[in-house]
Amino acid sequence: MFVIPDECKPYMEMQVVQYKDDPLAPWKMAIREAALYCEWLPRPGKLFTVLDFGSGLGRTTVMLRNLYRLPPWALFYLVDKSEISPKLTGGWRPDHDEWCNDLECTQRFVEANGLISYCLFRDVDDLGVMPSMDLIISTLAVGFHWPIEDYLFDPFARLCREGTVLIFGVRHGKYSAQTEFAGFETLGYAESGSKQDFLALRKV
Length: 204
Ligand SMILES: C[S@@+](CC[C@H](N)C(=O)[O-])C[C@H]1O[C@@H](n2cnc3c(N)ncnc32)[C@H](O)[C@@H]1O
Hints:
This protein has 204 residues and is α/β, with parallel strands linked by helices. It has one domain (6-203): Vaccinia Virus protein VP39 (Rossmann fold, 3-Layer(aba) Sandwich), CATH 3.40.50.150. It is 21% helix and 20% strand. It has five helices and seven strands. Strands 3-2-1-4-5-7-6 form a seven-stranded mixed beta sheet, covered by helices on one side. Strand 1 (49-53), helix 3 and strand 2 form a beta-alpha-beta unit. Helix 2 crosses helix 3 (59-67). The longest helix has 13 residues, at 25-37. Bound molecules: S-adenosylmethionine. Residues 15-16, 54-56, 59-60, 79-81, 96, 98-101, 124, 139-141 line the site of S-adenosylmethionine.
């Protein structure tokens, strides 16, 4: 289960709307998500640098760290904003102007859940200082609220080397198993039966 410090709760409500009705929803969802994407993860011995883009409080990072028992030296890079947009509509929003996070709360949440090796970033331009990634993951963010295409070739491609795996929790109906992107191999597509399916790519 996740430890959710009190000051993080309002952000969890905005990021995982089901949390309002069920305090265990963020954890249950993280387990269901992991069951859908786990087959595409690099083997633990090959997984040392992870980018969680649109991380929110860091739910997905904590799940990866705990469930897969990644070594303490695996380094997580979390990128999100540290502000709340005046109007949050949810849904598909290609103008990407809706954020709802506070990076101090992200820090509290990941540390309360045992993560020690991580870096927080607030701007897509900060990606320029990161090393190449073994895994890039985005749940309920890229592919769910905004098109993958807007991020894949720039900046994500700059953080990829041959073999980098990219996993997107995508909005049902926007992508499919036939989705292809130049320079990437499609590893698979998993339907969840709810709003968020998963699409996995590998850099070739
Ligand atoms: C629905 S929440 C999902 C959070 C987290 N990935 C999860 O699954 O719990 C979407 C997140 O994307 C963030 N976001 C929105 N626009 C962004 C942008 N341009 N760059 C980085 N993060 C952004 C929001 O602040 C929010 O935390």
